[in-house]
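Section 3.1: Structural characterization of target chains.
Under the original work plan, the team committed to producing a structural model for every single-chain target entering the pipeline before any wet-lab resources were allocated. The record below documents one such target. The sequence was received from the expression subgroup and is listed exactly as submitted; it comprises 261 residues.
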Amino acid sequence: AIGVRAFNVPHDDISYTDWNCADDEARFGTGGGAAGEAQAYLLNRVVEEFVSVHEDVEPLQMVATEYWDLDETPYKQALREHLHPEVIVHFTGTAIVPREITAAEAARARELFGHRMMLWDNYPVNDYQRGRLALAPYTGRQADLADHLVGIVANPMNQAVASKLGLYSVADYAWNPASYEPQRSWRDSLEEYAGGDASVVAALRMFCDTQHWLETMTGVDAPELAAAIESFWQAWLAKDDAGVAAFESYVVSFGAAADVL
């Protein structure tokens, strides 16, 4: 009634070895294969009794319980054999938060699940590294993923407004993967976020640089600050007064950034 036309019935982060109903166990059995068959039964009913009777509803989506690996399992086989062919399956790659996702992996996922796939990317979500924001550029996703995926869903942080930076880059990538450049997209997101105010852009960039480390995606922290410190030591050892002065100016701006923001 409010205009929603695309629906997802996710089955992630649940136990598929314990039944809440004895009749389910009696009907489907036990183990991953039984869970996949039971999930397919439920989702097929949603397709047949809801999606198919509304002409303008998009194909149903689901998140697989085994969403983080590309191994053949009884669960995946059950979805491949029993799930309605129009259902779109979400996965996250070869890990919950993988550093890289390749076209070959996406093709393998489509083969394993036997359905069209959507990437449910755990970026910029930060529930696994609480106390830090995920403000690094969106990286490690091959351009030709688009040849094997229906699309991308980006999992945001609890901090909704701060998530806009990461979501900007995901949207930029999804719009044109072949021309996507992470650093350029990151700079553009800062410009958009700061409303074009150069002083805010500079301060925001310094802050985001300190929140660059993502446990499995980037593996490095504050690369621009680290580079400035390295340049300072080289200037110091070489008695390069101009280089030392440049670092002093950087430090002053860094100290003022919080007030600017």
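The chain is about 45% helix and 5% strand.
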